[in-house]
Amino acid sequence: QGQDKSGNLSGEQPYQIQFEVILKSSITNIYNYPNPFSSKTHFVFTLTGAEIPDKLDIQILNISGRLIKQINLSEIEDIKIGNNITEYFWDGKDDFGDRIGKGVYVYKISVISSLTNKRVEKIEKLVIL
User: What DSSP assignment string belongs to 32-83?
Assistant: First the structure.
């Protein structure tokens, strides 16, 4: 039950909140937006655990598995535990700066922590119009 400096209560009923602390390192809620896109897309993900990973990479692959673009996100973004919305955007160009064709692609996010010596990978799809 909370109150202000004058002693006015915040309400008639006590307010309770429950939450769970997740200590296990994981990456969830991964998506890119907008999806589909035509000019640029950002990446969103949630990190849980006690430590920020040493390395977080995104690889854009075509449907046959050929690497189109390698993004070393941990080098260009301030990664934190919790929800992450990247300022970095991918513009639909490959590692050589050429625009790739319209279609369905997949991206693989790899999270590496040197303390636990674990690698976590998740794969999602994106569409270029």
Answer: EESSSBSS-EEEEEEEESSS--SEEEEEEE-TT--EEEEEEHHHHS---SEE
3-state helix, strand, coil in the chain (%, to 5): 5, 50, 45
Strands 67-72 and 26-33: unpaired
Query: Which residues are registered as beta bridge partners of 67?
Result: 61
Residue 73: both structure tokens together: 């996100």
Band (64; pLDDT cuts 50, 70, 90): very high
pTM: 0.75
3-state secondary structure of 28: strand
